[in-house]
Design a protein that fits this description.
Alpha/beta knot, cytoplasm, single chain, 42% helix, methyltransferase, globular, rRNA (pseudouridine-N3-)-methyltransferase activity, alpha/beta
Length: 157
């Protein structure tokens, strides 16, 4: 299985980018992993919230393959403990999922088209985080999930 994370907008913080890269590299030992950044929408100040979500949605759709399993990071999604998240990843692998695509939306979330196309939603927390921070949290949790599945000493109960 391949895991692809699509994120809208670049990360402004060099420190955050470095941390994300560390976990991207670590993930490479366990799974074919890709972080795909969609550039910020140009002239977004001239767009309504709905128009911005639509434009971002169109760009997300262009990155998808017909067989992809699309899961959105959304505050209204299902919450997991780290162990339950690792079990979720294992189930996706066992089901023969070719590519699991996890999407971190822009500041306003997702267009209705993206919600309709998705096959699930995951919430990392009931709290709101910047979409830049969510990238770090997600890649770390993916890494943690694989160390749990391999019984490696990264995660402590």
């Amino acid at each position: 299985m391949k895991i692809k994370v699509i994120a809208v907008g670049k990360t402004d913080s060099k420190q955050l980018s470095e941390l994300i890269h560390i976990y991207e590299k670590r993930l490479g030992f366990y799974v074919n992993f890709e972080l795909d950044i969609i550039p910020d929408i140009k002239n977004s100040k001239n767009l309504s919230e709905a128009q911005q979500k639509e434009k971002e949605g169109e760009l997300i759709l262009k990155k998808l393959q017909p067989t992809d399993v699309l899961v959105l990071l959304d505050e209204g999604g299902k919450s997991f403990s780290s162990i339950k998240f690792s079990e979720y990843i294992q189930k996706k692998m066992n089901a023969g999922t070719k590519q699991l695509v996890l999407v971190i939306g822009g500041p306003y979330g997702f267009s209705e088209t993206i919600y309709q196309k998705s096959q699930g939603k995951i919430s990392l927390s009931a709290m709101t985080f910047s979409h830049q921070m969510v990238r770090l949290f997600l890649v770390e949790q993916l890494y943690r999930a694989f160390t749990i599945l391999r019984n490696e000493p990264y995660h402590h109960q």
